[in-house]
Amino acid sequence: MDNSQNVSYQAGQAKGQAQEKGNQIMDKAGNAAQSAKETMQEVGQQMQVKAQGAADAVKNATGMNN
Fold this sequence. Notes:
InterPro entries: LEA1/2/D7/KIN2. It comes from Anisodus tanguticus. Residues 1-22 are annotated as: Disordered. This protein is an all-alpha fold. It has one helix spanning 3-62. It contains 1 helix and no strands. The longest helix has 60 residues, at 3-62.
């Protein structure tokens, strides 16, 4: 392999490694986004339950729940 072929080969190797690294970073970012979404959904559900409990407590305290 002459020098220009060697340089081309090394450039191709570097490009392939960079693409793979980019794919790994995108996968990690996607996983982090999905995890954040799931966490926010759980928080929203918990807040909904607490708000309903608070509303029920007010109704009970004011006699509106009878």
